[in-house]
């Protein structure tokens, strides 16, 4: 290249183009890597949050269902026990006094 000329000769133009191309390629690869990393992080965070949320939901559901069924069973046992006690007490009363006194 001449010192007085601003134009590049063919080999210099090719070198400049190659450097520019490499720079652009590096820029695109960096951008793609950062974007992929960012999106991967986003997806992993979303998956983790969703899994945590669904796990919490299932555990809450299981706890509520277990509590509800336990309450139901305890109520049933209590009512059945009360009913049987009444029934046995009634039989005892009937047996002690006899049917004529009722």
Overall pLDDT: 83
Spell the H/E element sequence.
H
Radius of gyration computed on alpha carbons = 42 Å
Strand content: under 5%
Total strands: the figure is: 0
Major sheet attributes: none
Query: How many distinct helices?
Result: 1
Query: What share of residues is helical?
Result: over 70%
Q: What's this entry about, in short?
A:
With 102 residues, the protein is mainly alpha-helical. The chain has one helix spanning 10-97.
Description:
The structure is a single chain. The protein has one helix spanning 10-97. The chain is an all-alpha fold and 102 residues long. The longest helix is centred in the middle third of the chain and has 88 residues, at 10-97.
Write a concise keyword list for the protein shown above:
86% helix, 102 residues, rod-shaped, mainly alpha, single chain
List the helices and strands and how they pair.
Elements: H1 10-97
């Amino acid at each position: 290249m001449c010192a007085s000329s601003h134009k590049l000769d063919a080999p210099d133009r090719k070198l400049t183009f190659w450097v520019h191309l490499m720079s652009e390629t590096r820029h695109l690869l960096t951008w793609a890597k950062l974007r992929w990393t960012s999106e991967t992080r986003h997806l992993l965070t979303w998956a983790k949050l969703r899994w945590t949320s669904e796990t919490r939901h299932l555990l809450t559901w299981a706890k509520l269902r277990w509590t509800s069924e336990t309450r139901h069973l305890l109520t049933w046992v209590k009512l059945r026990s009360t009913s049987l006690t009444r029934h046995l007490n009634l039989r005892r009363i009937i047996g002690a006094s006899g049917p004529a006194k009722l």
